[in-house]
Amino acid sequence: MSESTSNELEQQESSTPVADHDDTATKSPVSATATKSRSSSLVPWLVVLILLLVIAAAGWFGYRHLVPMHTQHQQALENLRNEQTATQAELEQLQQALESTSGQVNEQLEQALSAQEQQLRQQLQAQQSQLADYRLAVESVQAELANLDMSQESNWRIFEAHELTGRAATKLWIEQDPQASLAFLRLAQSHLVALNNPAHMAARQALANDIAALEQLPEAQVTDVSLTLGALRDRISRSTWYQQLAMTDKEQAPTADDTWLANLKRSANTLLQQFVRVQRRDTPVEPLIADAYFDVVQQRLLLQLQLAQQAAMQGEQTLFETTLEEAINQLQVLEGQITDTSITDVVKQLTELSQVTLRPDYPTQLEATNQLERLVRQQNVGG
């Protein structure tokens, strides 16, 4: 429109005389003002269009980039919640398993102790009953001995010595009681000594050799070992184990001037770690082991010591050594990992116990058995 107006103005100027030049000059500013007003009215629309384009581009960018990032963030949060829920469920299962295992172990230990106590009472009652029977038998025999003549007394004493030797063998190899066997052999020897017959010297010498062999046997360590294991079990059950945290290089390396102040600082640091769990930042960070792990290891160690104690009371040397070896291996794994400084002492005591012989090696046979059987055969032939 502005171009057509300008063309018309040029045609008018070319056809209009010079006298009309003033009118044309007065009309041209008006047309220029109208053109400027039209141009200025288009500028806001252009700005609005540019803003709409910028807003559309920003919305498209946000839809393409920010929405997926928000979705990924929500998914990550959901995964973390699921993992936390699963971890909590596993911890609850482990706690339940630990409580169940602890209850079962305590119940088994109580049953084993009750059965062992009942067995010991029965054995004691049986031994007391046997001793009472022996006293009655001896008293009855002594009462009848006055009515026998010398030949009958000699036969009776030989048969009695033979019977007592057989009982001594039973006590030694079956009941594993060398003291009772020694008492029977001494009683058999007293019968032959009472006869004072030179023909019985070989049997008396065999009885003396058997008595000397049993007297030289070391005492059985069953009771001492059992009591020591019980004390160790009580000591471990009352201790609380936590993970031993690493010290700094400055604390680990001993200084050249190892004074009492440096020793006091190290001792104070060790004591502090037993109450306050501090991990230094100037050393590589080590992950803490769950306290439930040490509780399970402690219960397993107590069970091993209980089995070793039971094996010791029953005189089973192989089972006793195997069980103690397993307990020692468990404690050696824990050395340096927990705050309990007495682990090394416990390992040393268990190592010494594993080298103890519960019962001594008994003689394979009694020499007096053959000699007394010979005398019995002679009496039967002579009778």
Automatic annotation (TrEMBL):
Entry's transmembrane regions: 42-63
Coiled-coil region: 70-144
Polar residues bias spans: 1-17
UniProt keyword annotations, A-Z: Coiled coil, Membrane, Transmembrane, Transmembrane helix
Entries under InterPro entries matching the protein: HemX
Region of interest: Disordered: 1-34
Pfam families referenced in this protein's UniProt entry, alphabetically: HemX
Record-given protein name: Heme biosynthesis operon protein HemX
Record organism: Pseudidiomarina donghaiensis
Top-level taxonomy: Bacteria, Pseudomonadati, Pseudomonadota, Gammaproteobacteria, Alteromonadales
